[in-house]
Amino acid sequence: MILCFKRYMVVLAVVLLFTACGRQHNAESAVQDFIEANHSNAGDVEVLSCSKIDSTKVLSDSAIAVMQHNAAPGFNKGIEYPARKSRLLYVLRTTYLSGSDTCGATFYLNSDMQVVALKPNAVVSGN
Q: What is the pTM of this model?
């Protein structure tokens, strides 16, 4: 009985590990795709790092609308964002190189791992 429980716990831990790793990878890929499709110098942008994926339910629809309207520096105006779908949003903080500037942005993704909003973070460095 105890051996069966231990085996069950190991299998559960492995499944959770693969699920978490998959979500992280999907979020990073979605952000990379978003940058390539919507940054004005997409060919000159290199993602340097991404935070561990997190989630939030406290972002209001009006805050999302403001972020969508106020595009981050370097991103095209008039980006068409997908729908939010639920209160839960995934959050990924990203540092990227744009030309010679090291920049940061926080990307908010829906449950389908599509970017629904982003906000710029302070420029880390520039030459």
A: 0.81
Contact criterion met (CB below 8 Å) for 119 and 67:
yes
55 residue type, one letter: S
Encoded tokens for 20: 């978490």
* Cβ atoms of 55 and 91 closer than 8 Å: yes
List pLDDT tens digits, range 66-123.
Answer: 999 998 889 999 999 999 989 999 999 999 999 889 999 999 999 999 999 999 997 6
Residue 72: CB atoms within 10 A of its CB come to 19
Q: If you compute the radius of gyration of the chain from its CA atoms, what whole number of angstroms results? A: 17
Q: What whole-number distance in Å separates Cα of residue 42 and Cα of residue 65?
A: 24
DSSP conformation letters of 24-44: HHHHHHHHHHHHHHHBTTGGG
User: What DSSP element (H or E) covers 78?
Assistant: none
What residue type is assigned to position 62 of the chain?
Answer: S
Cβ burial 41-57 (10 Å sphere, 16+ → b, else e): eeeebeeeebbebeeee
Residue 86 DSSP label: S
